[in-house]
Structure formats: C-alpha cells, structure tokens
Automatic annotation (TrEMBL):
Its main location: membrane. This is MFS transporter. It is a multi-pass membrane protein. It comes from Rugamonas aquatica. PROSITE patterns: MFS. Residues 20-428 form the Major facilitator superfamily (MFS) profile domain. One of its GO terms (cellular component) is membrane.
C-alpha cells in the first residue's frame, strides 16, 4: 500500500505525492493571482469610481473577510470529501466573482464582487491539507512551506503583471476603463482551466481517493473518521489551535494587508508611478518563492537536531524579526528605504508563515482539516483587523507602526504553544518509523 513520501523529488511527477505537490501549489498560485489581481489596479479603479479612503478600506476588508468563513469550512470539507473534490469546487465557484468584478459599474457592485473573490483565499487551507497527508513528518514542514510559498507568489506576480497587462490592453487602443476590466477576466479563466487539471490528475492521499477508501472500509490517515463537523469540534477544543490562530493572524494577516495597500501606499506616499508601485509591491509577494519554503525547511532541520518544540522557538524568533522590520518599513523616509525595509520584514513574515504550518500537522492528527482551517482563518482575521484599524485611524503609516508592535507582542503566543514531553516523544517515534 502506498505511504507518505519521505523525500521531495522536485523534478518528478511520477508519484501521486509529487503530482499533488506540484498541482496544489499551481492551483494555489492561480487562486492567489486572482485574489490580489485587483490590488495593483486600485489607483486606476479609485479614480474611475471616485473612491474615498474609507471606501478603499471597505474594499480591502471585503477582500479578506469572506475568506475567514470559507477557510473554516473547507478544512473540514477536505476531511469529508477529500482535497481533490474540494479544490475543484472552490476553483469553479471562485471564478464567478473573479470574472464578475470586471463588469462592476459602481462602488457597491465592485465591493460585492470583491467580497466574493475572497473565497479564493481559502485555497491555502486545501494546499496545506493535501501536502500534509502526502508527506512524512521529516519533510512535511518543507513540503507545506514550499507549496504554500510558491503558490503564495501568485499574489506578488499579480502586483507586477496586472498593471502591465492593463497597459498592454490600452496600447491595443482600448480605454483605460476597459483595459483594467479586460485584464481582470484573465485570472478567472485560469481558475476554470486549473479546476479541470486538478480533478483529472490528483488523488486525495497516497492510498487513493477518500470516497473509494471509505467504501472499501480502509482507514484514512489525517482526518477525523466522519470528517466535517467532527473534525471542526476536535480542532476548536484544542487551545494550541487558537494560539497559532493568533500568530498566523500576525504573520499571514500582515502579508495580506500589505498586498492590498502596498501599491496605493507607494503611489500616494512616495509619488511612484503605477508601474513602479506595482513592481515595488510585487517584490514583497515574490519573496514567497523561497522565503516561506525556507521557514518550513529550517523548521524541519531544527526539529531534526532537537525536538518538536524547536519548531515553536523558531516561530517566536521569526515573529519578533517581523515586528521589528514592520516598524522600519512604517518609518522609512524614502521609497528606496521603504522597499529595503519591506523586503527585510517580508523575509521574516513569509518564513513565519512557513514555520507556522510546519507545526500544524502535529497539533491534532485526528482533525487535520479542522486545525488547518481554523489556523488559516486566523490569517484573514488578522488582515480584517488591520483593515479596520486603518479605516479607524485614516492613516496608513500610523497603522503600520501600531501593527509592528502588535506583531512583536503576538510572538508570545508562539511560546505558549509549546508541546508536552509526551507529544514530543510520540512525534519523535513516528518520525523514526516513517524514515
């Protein structure tokens, strides 16, 4: 019987594990590209609809708010239906508002579709679930972080590519108003294509698909027996889940917030052009190509030379670095210094995200979907909270400074999530058996 992979063979798609690895980060990339496609075009959209600072804040909040609910739901859905069917459904349903936003004619309709697009952000939970059930403990941190990081880069690519795509449309002779709309149809079409590929070429776990395994009476590794509500209840009763919910809100939540405000911040605060701001903002997202994977890889290495709690200590250190870097970014006096500071705190932010989900598979193996979903939702709660803070203060720079202190303080939650000696010993035994 097929078992979890104990190594990551990047240039292979011959096994179910590696097909799932590559297709899940690709699906995640497409979803994040779609999720953040509007953000770099906001300076143009702001002018077309005459948006106020409060309305822009509402749009940014809407972009991440619905994701909280969808992330809570898709984790248990993975336990019940399997990641293959869950991802396919999310891609197809998520493409509707992505294409729909291109036809918005007012602030209200744009806000409505932007809210719907947020569902695409739940793709992260499915990606982490799929790699967690496919890879053994000694490499699961690296697998989770690499898949998430490469997929996460879709947000950075959107920041850089969408302004260029709109510019290309305008050069073909269309108006700027039509150009941004035509550009936004592209990610919606990509989601539909990806749904077909994912359904055709992946399976739920090394042994096969959940529905077939359950029909054959075979136990499924990684999910509650009944999935769904049982998985959610088990996860929500675990205090460690809620501590990591907070820490993930302070790393991934900040990441989402920066994606949504970076381009317009560079345009308004440093007077960069739309293309320049898009490239600057895009560099933050592109760190995910290696930084998130680095966080997971270092977590695996630290655990190998010590124990499970080394993963927790690493997360604490990374979050302190993130908080300090964010304060540097908030107080940068020039665009050049701001970009350097953004890359520094971005490195810590992405690594902290990877280190968090290197811990997730060990929190409660009976309810992996519930754990992944709740902690993943924490990221969006953090982004929504940051959005409300900015709306209340009416000042982006002041908001960033306050968030820097909040992130540093939340690092204490990582330390509080340390595992008991029995859990550490159990994980060490499981790692030796899987090796």
């Amino acid at each position: 019987m097929a078992t979890k992979a104990t190594s990551i063979k990047l240039f292979s798609i011959s096994t179910p594990q590696m097909r799932a690895f590559h297709l899940t980060w690709m699906a995640f990339f497409v979803c994040f590209f779609a999720w953040f496609a509007c953000a770099p075009l906001m300076p143009v959209i702001k002018g077309e609809f005459g948006l106020s600072i409060a309305q822009i804040a509402n749009i940014n909040i809407a972009a991440v708010a619905i994701t909280i609910l969808v992330r809570l739901v898709v984790g248990p859905l993975c336990d019940h239906f399997g990641p293959r069917k869950t991802y396919t459904g999310l891609l197809l349903l998520g493409s509707i508002p992505v294409i729909g936003v291109a036809f918005a004619q007012s602030y209200e309709s744009f806000l409505f579709f932007r809210l719907g697009i947020g569902a695409a952000g739940a793709s992260f939970v499915i990606t982490q679930y799929h790699t967690s059930v496919m890879f053994a403990p000694k490499v699961v941190g690296t697998a989770n972080a690499a898949a998430a990081g490469w997929g996460n880069a879709g947000g950075g690519v959107a920041q850089a590519v969408m302004p260029l795509l709109m510019t290309a449309m305008v050069m073909l002779g269309v108006s700027e108003g039509f150009g941004w709309r035509a550009a936004l149809i592209v990610p919606g079409v990509l989601m539909i294509v990806m749904a077909g590929v994912y359904y055709r070429y992946t399976q739920d776990c090394p042994q096969g698909n959940f529905s077939e395994l359950r029909a054959a009476g075979i136990a499924i590794d990684g999910g509650a027996k009944k999935g769904g509500w049982e998985s959610f209840k088990l996860a929500s009763a675990n205090y460690r889940v809620w501590l990591l919910f907070i820490t993930y809100g302070a790393c991934f939540g900040i990441e989402i917030f920066i994606h949504n405000i970076a381009a317009i911040y560079y345009v308004d605060h440093f007077k960069l052009t739309l293309a320049q701001a898009g490239m600057a903002a895009g560099s933050f997202g592109l760190l995910a190509l290696f930084a998130r994977a680095l966080g997971g890889w270092v977590s695996d290495k630290f655990a190998a030379i010590g124990n499970l709690n080394n993963r927790v200590t690493l997360l604490f250190v990374l979050m302190l670095g993130e908080g300090a870097g964010l304060l540097m970014f908030a107080n940068a006096g020039t665009a050049a210094l701001a970009i350097v500071a953004m890359l520094v705190f971005g490195l810590f932010t992405h690594m902290a995200c990877g280190a968090t989900y290197a811990i997730v598979p060990f929190v409660d193996k009976r309810a992996l979907g519930g754990v992944a979903g709740i902690i993943g939702a924490g990221g969006n709660v953090g982004a929504v909270a940051a959005g409300f803070l900015m709306k209340g203060l009416g000042n982006t720079q002041q908001t960033l400074s306050i968030l820097g202190f909040v992130v540093a303080a939340s690092a204490l939650c990582a330390l509080a999530a340390r595992f008991s000696s029995s859990a550490v010993e159990e994980t060490a035994i499981a790692s030796k058996l899987a090796a």
